Amino acid sequence: MYLVTLVVCCCSGDSGFDGTVMGGINSMVQYQRYFGMTGVGSKTSGTIPASYFPDRFGRRFSMWFGNAILIAGALITANATNKGMFLGGRFLTGIGSSCAGASAKSYLAEIAPAHSRGAYLGFLNSFYYVGQMTATGMMVSTGKWESNLSWRLPLYIQAVPAGINVLTIFLCPESPRWMCSVGKPDNARKTLARFHSSTNDVNSPLVDLEMREIDEKIAVDGADKKWWDFRPLFKTRADRYRMWMVILIGQLSGNGLITYFLPILLKNAGITSQNKQLTLNFVNSGSATVDRFGRRKVLLYSTIVMCVILAIVTGLLSEFGNAARANAGITFIYLFMVVFSYGWTPMQALYPAEVLSYEARAKGLAFLNIVSQASTLINTFGLPVALQRLGWKVYLIFLIWDVIEVIVIYFVVVETKGLTLEEINEVFEREHPKQYSEQLQRDIREARRRHGDGGI
C-alpha cells in the first residue's frame, strides 16, 4: 500500500511543483528580461477529462493521461521562445495536473482501508510540499545563474514526478469500487483482500462485509457518464449538502496569496533582494501533518489560529517602512502557512473524496477543480491589482473570509473519521448529517471503551 501511495503521490507532487514554480520564476530578472512578463500564475482546469475519464476508463488511465499531458506541457514551456509558446505550455500543464490530481484523490480514497484512509489521503496532499520544495529549493540556486537555464531547468524538472507516475501507475491495481461498477467483482475482491485483509484471504469476513456494502451502493454502470451534465451533483438534498462540503475546500483562505505572489508580498514588506526572496519562498514550503484527531476538530482549530495570525499580520504590516514590524510580519506569514499546511492541506485531498458518493466522485472532484481554478483566477489576476491598490488591507479581506469559514465549519461540517465510504454515504442521507455523524462518533467511542473494559 505504501508503494502504491507513493506512485499516486507523484500527482500531488506535480501540483505542488506546478503551483509554485511560477512564484519563483516571476521574481527572476532573467525570466523577466526574456519575456517581459512578471505575473504568469497557476494552472487551468482539466474539468472535462477529470469528469469523464475516471469513470469511463478507470482511475489509473486518467492519472496516466493527465501526467502525459503535463509532460508535454512542461517540455513546451521549458523550450519556449515566445510568450504564446510559454502560455500554451502552461495551459497544458494546468490541464494535466488537474486531471491527474482529481483522479488520484478518487483512486486513493477508494483503495485505502477505512481506518487509515485519512493518513493516506493526508499524505497525498501533503506531498504537494515535496514538489514545492523541489521547485523552490532548486530556484534558490538556479536564480543565481545569469543564463536562461536559470528558469528553464526548473520547468524541465517539472516533468520528473509526472514521468514516474506514467511509467509505474499501471503496475498498481485498479480501484476496487470502479471494478465493481464495470462488472469485475472478482478482481475487486482480490484487491480488497490484498490491501484490507491481514491474511490476504479473499473470503475473509472483512472482505465479505466490504463487498456487500459496495454491492449495495454501487450499481454496474451506476456512475454518471454524461461529463457535460453537472446537475446530478445538486439533485437531492444529500447531494447538495455534499457539494457544499466540497466547495468549502477552496483556495481563498489566504494561502494562494502567499503561494503565488510571495515575491510581491516581500517587496511590500521592504525585502527586495532576489536571493532573499527565493530563499524565503523555500522556507514557505513547510510540512503538513496527517489527520489524527478527526476532520472537524483539525479544520476548526486550525482555521481559528489562521484568523488570529492574519489579524496579527494585518496589524504588523499596516505601517510601511518599519523594518522590525516588516520582519515580524513575514515571520507570521510563514507561520500562517505552517498552520494552513497542518489543518487544510491534508483535507483538500481527503474530505471531498470522502463525502462524495461513488457515482458522483469523479464528477464532483472535477467540479472541485472548477471551484479551485475560479479561486486561482482571483489569486492570479485580482490579487496583483488588490496588492497594488490596497496593500496590507488585502490581509484584512482574507481575515474576514476565514472568520466566515470558522462559522461554516462549526455549524455544517460532518465528521467522517473511521467510517467506510459507504457508511459516509449513509450519513449524508440522514435528515441532519452533522448531528448524526457526531452521535455516530460518540457511539463508536463508547463501543471501543466497552470493548476495552471487557478485555480487561
Automatic annotation (TrEMBL):
Highest taxon, organism lineage: Eukaryota
Pfam families: Sugar_tr
GO molecular-function terms, A-Z: carbohydrate:proton symporter activity
Organism: Hypholoma sublateritium (strain FD-334 SS-4)
Protein name: Major facilitator superfamily (MFS) profile domain-containing protein
The keyword Transport is assigned to this record: yes
SUPFAM superfamilies: MFS general substrate transporter (SSF103473)
Membrane topology: Multi-pass membrane protein
Major facilitator superfamily (MFS) profile domain mapped to chain residues: 1-417
Taxonomic classification: Eukaryota, Fungi, Dikarya, Basidiomycota, Agaricomycotina
Reaction(s) catalysed (UniProt annotation): myo-inositol(out) + H(+)(out) = myo-inositol(in) + H(+)(in)
Keywords assigned: Membrane, Transmembrane, Transmembrane helix, Transport
Family in the record: Belongs to the major facilitator superfamily. Sugar transporter (TC 2.A.1.1) family.
Cellular component GO terms, alphabetical: membrane
Cell location: Membrane
Transmembrane segments: 61-80, 243-266, 298-317, 324-344, 364-387, 394-413
